[in-house]
Amino acid sequence: MSNRTVDNHSPGDFGERPLSPGEIRQISKKFREKDPWEVLRWGAEQFGKSMVLACSFGYEDVALVHMLHRVAPETDIFYLDTDLLFPETYETRDRLAKALDKTFIRVRPEYSLEEQAKLWGEELWKRDANACCGIRKVNPLRRFLKGYSAWCTGIRREQSPTRAHTEVVEWDHQFGLLKLNPLAYWSAKEVWAYIREHNIPYNPMHDRRYPSIGCVPCTRQVQPGEDSRAGRWSGMDKTECGLHPSGEIKDRR
Ligand code: SF4
Q1: Which residues belong to any copy of the Phosphoadenosine phosphosulphate reductase domain (predicted)?
Q2: β-strand partners of 106
Q3: Dihedrals phi, psi of 65, to nearest 5 degrees
């Protein structure tokens, strides 16, 4: 197995020269024409146990988990448990775990909801959603990814204008490792066709006009004609939790 890493990478010495930005662009271009599982297979061959996949149990991610299971079933898969996820999300986790006989790594925030309320006040998400996402998502992810050389996500170009330039393979400047987005060029229709073809468990909220599902306080149904992420942080000047790809949110005590 050939293992390579990129410049400025700290965890792990892979014994070969690092990938240059130009090589990353070339690899990404090559994989635009290939199936998403080919990207995952390449990542697993390059990075082995130093690659990890992020799963929110949304429809893109359950498809990606299934693809990974076909090509590299030993790869770690994690989810960010903010303690504020929908019951349907936990149920989807359990159904998928059973279907694939896979354990998902649970990544937790440093602070419980009670501790957060004591330090920053009740229902921080209503007053400062960026700070709340920083505490419950971005900072836990930053700590967790320190143990890996590459991470895989289910983000797609057509999900939102902020994701419209997503590449299949890119350097993640925020977290300092390679980022694989195998579904970057896939449409929602293609993802759903894959889910149906393979009978993959998915979150039933998707059938109730919840195309994008996050934490309970920050997710609502979308109305006909709204875009797929309109139900996230509705009414706020916020469209991303900060994982793709803004900077770390500082503690504001
Ligand atoms: S999505 Fe809402 S509740 Fe969840 S971490 Fe972000 S601000 Fe907090």
Answers
A1: 51-220
A2: 79
A3: -60, -40
Q: Whose CA is nearest to atom 4 of ligand 1?
A: 215
Would residue 241 show up in a list of annotated catalytic residues for this protein? yes
Q: How far apart are CA 244 and CA 110, in angstroms?
A: 21
Strand stretches in 92-210, DSSP E:
105-107, 150-152, 169-172, 177-180
Handedness of CA 84, 90, 161, 42 (dihedral sign): positive
Amino acid at 44: A
Residues 79-92 have pLDDT tens digits of 999 999 999 999 99
The domains found in the chain, sorted by start residue, are 21-218 (3.40.50.620)
Q: Tell me the per-residue pLDDT of 144-174, one tens digit each, with 9 for 90 and over.
A: 999 899 999 999 999 888 889 999 999 999 9
* Lookup: tokens for 63: 């498809």
Ligand-binding site membership of 132 (annotated): yes
Q: Is 218 annotated as a binding residue?
A: yes
Query: Does the beta carbon of 141 sit less than 6 angstroms from any atom of ligand 1?
Result: no
